[in-house]
Amino acid sequence: MKIRIGRLFIITGISSLSLALLFGVLAAVQFIFPDFIPEIAFYKARPLHVSLAVSWIFSIGIGAVYNYLEEKEIIRFQFAGFIHWIIYVVTGIFIIVSYLKGTFGGREYWEFPPVLSIPILISWLFFGLVFFSSVIKIKNWPVYLWMWSTGIVIFFVTFLEANSWIFDYFSNSVVRELTIQWKSYGSLVGSWNMLVYGAGLYVMEKISGEDSYAKSGIAFVLYFVGLTNLFFNWAHHIYAVPASPWIGNIAYVISMTELFIIGRIIWKWKGTLTTAQKFHHKHPYLFLLASDIWVFLNLALAILISVPAINVYTHGTHVTVAHAMGSTIGINSMILVAFILHHFSWRKSWWIIIPYWIINISLLCFWIALIGSGILKGVAVVEGTSSFQEIMISIEPILKFFMYSGAFLALGFLILLFHLLFEFLQDFPENIFGKTE
Prior knowledge:
- The chain is mainly alpha-helical.
- The protein has a domain at 142-306.
- Helix content is 78%, strand content 0%.
């Protein structure tokens, strides 16, 4: 009997997103009503939401990698993969507990005590051992294997960079610490994009029934553009930091190319599918189509906020949050849901279609509200026309709209996730241990 590591990570990812949504709604309400549930105050709810959302992305991305190895029956050192999952879950529990207790010590994304970074690094070593030992003999790699291998390596390096603040050389210099932190965070996003885009291309290959896209020139263009973005697209965050100007200039030129390429790939791929293929795989197809629409919406916003003259007004406001949410929810999460829906059978279609529309309509309202409040706040702050209190009072109606749309967004996802989890557990233990003879 072999444990299906990929499915363990998928259950972990679904659980992480469910909790992330609940804490996200709590944080949104507390942003308007600070005294709501004071036991889990905003300073606790926000990092809980962020870390669990990051866990969702990495869990399903990792699950996609393990699922591929298990489907192809090439996985080696499977017990090391199980240890990876155990360390991952136990460390996650410790992180949640530390936040609930108010014990912090890190930086953005990694706000937990830095000692908990050690098991994360160890678990990633187990992941790398399983992956590279399993695929090393495969010839003519499809692009998603290159993406996954790059994501694994870059995460390890990036995570070390993200914790460099513990050394005096970085923490004693504000400019140096801000620069290295934003660099590491941008590359971190690049590493999870490699896992997510790899999973998306793998799903597209499975739906179409042939591997031409995963080995096509445009797919490898996406890989190399993504790799370039991984190294440089973070720099538009540091226009305000007195670092070398060439860093920001390079980022401005290349930071939008990755979104354009992934959007083009999905758009052209959907045109190659037959009506029968679209109907047979209608649920993952719908979520991939939604991700493509969000690629172009977020691309338009990203181009605007990368212009330095506009960035002065938008950086650090809710416009930046809108860009992050458009990418994390509209693009990455749609692709990851498509992966889950494709690899497992679901009995009741309407439990997927109804939340699909709730999610996308609510996300659009959520996104517009963030942009609107961010623009008003940014202009008022830069021009100095109002006090901070006056600014917050003026944008409060938009923030309430943001809160309500966020609640409906969470509701749509929770309906979908609980249905997926219910369906998944109905076939337990086969979904984890396989069918017994």
